[in-house]
Amino acid sequence: RSCILVSIGGKNIMLDCGMHMGYNDDRRFPDFSYITQNGRLTDFLDCVIISHFHLDHCGALPFMSEMVGYDGPIYMTHPTKAICPILLEDFRKITVDKKGETNFFTSQMIKDCMKKVVPLNLHQTVQVDDELEIKAYYAGHVLGAAMVHIKVGSESVVYTGDYNMTPDRHLGAAWIDKCRPDILISESTYATTIRDSKRCRERDFLKKVHESIERGGKVLIPVFALGRAQELCILLETFWERMNLKAPIYFSTGLTEKANHYYKLFITWTNQKIRKTFVQRNMFEFKHIKAFDRSYADNPGPMVVFATPGMLHAGQSLQIFKKWAGNEKNMVIMPGYCVQGTIGHKILNGQRKLEMEGRSTLDVKLQVEYMSFSAHADAKGIMQLIRMAEPRNMLLVHGEAVKMEFLKGKIEQEFSIDCYMPANGETVTVTTNPSVPVDISLNLLKREMALGGPLPDPKKPRTMHGTLIMKENSLKLVSSEQALKELGLNEHQLRFTCRVQLQDPHSDTDTLHRIYTHLKSVLKGYTIQHLPDGTVMVESIVIKVSSSTEDPNTKVLLLSWSYQDEDLGSFLSTLLKKGLPSGLC
Amino acid sequence: MLHVLYLSGVILLFVSLKTFPSVSSFHVFQYCLSGHPTLPCNVLKFKSTTIMLDCGLDTTSVLNFLPLPLVHSPRLSKLPGWVSKDGTLNLEKKELLDLSTIDVILISNYHCMMALPYITEHTGFTGTVYATEPTLQIGRLLMEELVNFMERVPKAQSATCWKNKEIQRMLPGPLKDAVDVWTWKRSYSMQEVNSALSKVQLVGYSQKVELFGAVQVSPLSSGYSLGSSNWIIQSHHEKVSYVSGSSLLTTHPQPMDQSSLKNSDVLILTGLTQMPTANPDGMLGEFCSNLAMTIRAGGNVLVPCYSSGVIYDLLECLYQFIESANLGTTPFYFISPVANSSLEFSQIFAEWLCHNKQSKVYLPEPPFPHAELIQTNKLKHYPSIHGDFSSEFRQPCVVFTGHPSLRFGDVVHFMELWGKSSLNTIIFTEPDFSYLDALAPYQPLAMKCVYCPIDTRLNFHQVSKLLKEVQPLHVVCPEQYTQPPLTQSHRSDLMLELQPPPMPYRRCSVLNLPFRRRYERVYIMPELANSLVPSEIKPGISLATVSAVLHSKDNKHTLQSVPKPPPVPPSKKRKRVIEEPPVVLAPKPLLSGAVPLEAFLATLQKHGITEVKVEETADGHILHLQAEDTLIQLEEDGTHIVCDNNEPLRTTLRDLVLRFLQKL
């Protein structure tokens, strides 16, 4: 089960709020005391995001929002919002009505909880508050499954939920843009499987059903009304069509129409092929699958029946099971997880004699098969997603430790990024190194870009200079002159004047010219001017010559420069003190 | 037809696509009547990105031509070429805007993308088109319908009409002699439509799309039709809103997102209602009562309409109305090559619908009640009048069919069929065409005509309220909106009155948007950021001098630390050349502030300079360091150090002075 708490840029976000179906006690729900010992969660969480409708991702939501107490926004996609309350209600019925458990959420709580849900559209950038924004991407896996990109300032996290990188019978492949998050939190259910094993499992499933039908057996598939049921229906429907099979397929009453309807209305969330052809032929209008009537169970000959509920704990599926259990030609296929204590759980554990109500026992002779069809990304898919998103750090969740360790090694080797795999209740801290966004004055930028020339020269990087003004929350980078002006400051001129004595038996003008020639040869790349008013200018440094009153051969050079030319001025005064080289004309 | 003016800053270029080739292969010549503000096509140049906003195809000109009957009609083909008197012609002058330079096209709704193949195909266009999924899907349907209408017309028929010299002679000058005239007015093919639409990138509302790192565009719900959007085009410091075809009425689409339009520097306003005086609700009521009246009297009702949009609302209205008006047994027919697709598609876009309809899918129920009308056989849809329809057709009935111009599509057949009886009624609901012009070639007509144009787009009252709310700095709009309509020149309420007045544009004009771009976003890399030393210069204001290397890539600018020069290998040659001029890595900062005399003297003393003679001058003081024979002139805005032959002293003094000054 998944329930992750992310703190990013001062915001706390809960990613998924799953339930562990293997436990009957408190361990079933996440331990929210990690967040706060007492009091409501509203004060500690900025938002909750649910990736898809599987109970191991949303099963604890009503418990969290209504029983622990959370009133903030809960984000999920439209299909998830539509389907999740139905699954929650189904599960609630099993646990409370059938097993008589207390301390569980009520129907009303599910409704109240769903009122807090804000629907999320794909690729829509939702501004949770001024700083926190989230964006959903298509994840495949199940109808309405989404990955989320969470961004605060320049820091970001991507949470994948469960996803699938190869399109399957009714869903497309997950996709994300190159969003370069600081952390990518990925599930890793199939961390070591490299080939897409789903195809194989499907073939296996069809083969088993087919064999059973061939020998005249009846096949019972206990399912929940939504999700896997539709997937298996499509699978069987296309198989029946291809193989031209005649044995009837039934779907137990009531929910069929309704459940398929969800899929029809959310057709935009399915794969491209189904979307393209839905006007001509809606994949969720099944030709071969008909509504079941309880009298059909006794009909002779082979048949396939989808019946609710999925764990054989009550209702139609249990009734049919009881009828068919005695015949070894028949088969029951459990396509999903079963809670401890249910008949589904018992027969999967190999129990062959079941105690029923009224002390009667039931001999289980029919074949029992377990098959998981959930679409998850395999190792290849996870690597593919990393290539797509280019994260700076990787965090693996939702998988087996040993397999994750293997994948972690591979990721670190191939992408040279840090990879973490926290245990339940463990906290991972990843330090980011964000760059600082600043507003640069266009004048300064343009001047700089114009000076830089059309092509950057990596060997001679040009240095730009400016002044960063930090005022309240704004950061502005402007030229120093503009900064003075904007802040209303006066400029303080710092000047230096330095006299240098020089032995040079020439006239003043000749000396000046000699200096000019000398500097010309030494200072390459500087602007040197010999001005008519009897000065030499090196950049903005002024050099004047006068003869000493005592000795006409001793010249006094007057150098004057401003602080901005300090380096050059200092260099010149030292240089000229050494005298002029002979050989100058 | 296109004038380009370049002024500094941002340039907005308006092009009308009305002169682009129009719909028919042989019959229709492209005419330009008046400017068409509801089918806009503007080009915005913003930060070196060329963005085309919408590309609507104006089909009003088809009114100048003969209807295209599905079956040969002796009456129609005998009519002389019928050309409206005020028809003026503009030949396309595409060369004034090189379509291959367009980087992106933003589509606001499916009515405003009908010219897309003319822009993206055979023009060298290599950019991307952005649209929402419903806009793409329904736009595809409408284009498919148009192509279908044109292609299924019997060939012989079109050929004879084209050869009718009478028609060509009556055309205005340029066309009469134009040789290649029929090439540019050829309608696009389905292949071209598919190719054009393959360039569309889907976007969701409020999705932020980066263009070349320079500009960010984002669609917002505009409330007008399924998936219709307004667009925000912004950089870090400038924001342009493009409002096109928006509605504040509660019909089927998601409500208009108004708040995101706030803080715009410029708001481009197009696509206001074409029927500012007609109240959509009133029109809907009139529509229903006229329909019921005709049916009760045993007549048929013909509703020429587009295959998507208002028809959903009409059907919903009828769904509620049928029982009360006792029309339970009257058949409703929707005839279009895309009727089925349109009805089906409308049900799968829950995300794009108003809240009421959205919540229906949670039940789960189809969002639109026309699903129930179809299920109960009250509404039937057919691809055309041929096939099943001809055998199942019962009268009296109500027929929804296109094209609303009455020039092509199945509607032409029904005009011929029902026009002669006064029992029948034609009800116009689409506002795009003048109903009198539409009917002209069918005159004399016995059939009753009712005009209930339903245009849910913003009216002037709603616009001024909206603008008051979102407060853009400048409004840009078609010039038609800045004066009352010609026919109602006294109605000053039918125009935009704003302060400051809106900037009007007409076809082919170019506007310079009043932007002063002054800042651009740049990112300081962490290493450099850590090395900065800010100093507080005034309360709350700190300064830091920055020396950095600017990197510009993909229109993103970053500042990185100046790399340290590689250590020079100590070579003999180097040692000899001591006269190496200094390599200036960082020029000195500017200085600010003043050097206070007392404090400075104290500092000098601390550094062993004790013999200082202070002389007061007009502007400050002159300090004479007697032992060192050095002068320091201290003034309010300058310090002058005169020091000969003592470099160590000079640098010490320099550093002491600097202590008192702020550097920037």
From TrEMBL, chain A:
Pfam families recorded: Beta-Casp (PF10996), IntS11_C (PF21386), Lactamase_B_6 (PF16661), RMMBL (PF07521)
Domain Beta-Casp stretches: 229-347
Cell compartments where the protein resides: Cytoplasm; Nucleus
GO BP, sorted A to Z: snRNA processing
Recorded superkingdom: Eukaryota
Classification via CDD domains: INTS11-like_MBL-fold (cd16291)
UniProt domain Metallo-beta-lactamase: residue ranges: 1-213
GO cellular component, one term: nucleus
This protein's UniProt keywords: Cytoplasm, Hydrolase, Metal-binding, Nucleus, Zinc
Keyword Hydrolase found: yes
GO molecular function: hydrolase activity; metal ion binding; RNA endonuclease activity
Signal peptide positions on this chain: none
Cofactors that this protein relies on: Zn(2+)
Family (UniProt): Belongs to the metallo-beta-lactamase superfamily. RNA-metabolizing metallo-beta-lactamase-like family. INTS11 subfamily.
Protein name per UniProt: Integrator complex subunit 11
Lineage: Eukaryota, Metazoa, Chordata, Craniata, Vertebrata
Gene symbol of the encoding locus: ints11
Automatic annotation (TrEMBL), chain B:
Boundaries of every Beta-Casp domain copy: 311-439
GO cellular component, one term: integrator complex
Predominant place of localization: cytoplasm
Region (Disordered): 554-576
Highest taxon, organism lineage: Eukaryota
Region forming the signal peptide: 1-25
Keywords (A to Z) from UniProt: Cytoplasm, Nucleus, Signal
Subcellular location: Cytoplasm; Nucleus
Record GO biological process: negative regulation of transmembrane receptor protein serine/threonine kinase signaling pathway; regulation of cellular response to growth factor stimulus; RNA polymerase II transcription initiation surveillance; snRNA 3'-end processing
Family statement drawn from the similarity comment of this UniProt entry: Belongs to the metallo-beta-lactamase superfamily. RNA-metabolizing metallo-beta-lactamase-like family. INTS9 subfamily.
Name of the protein: Integrator complex subunit 9
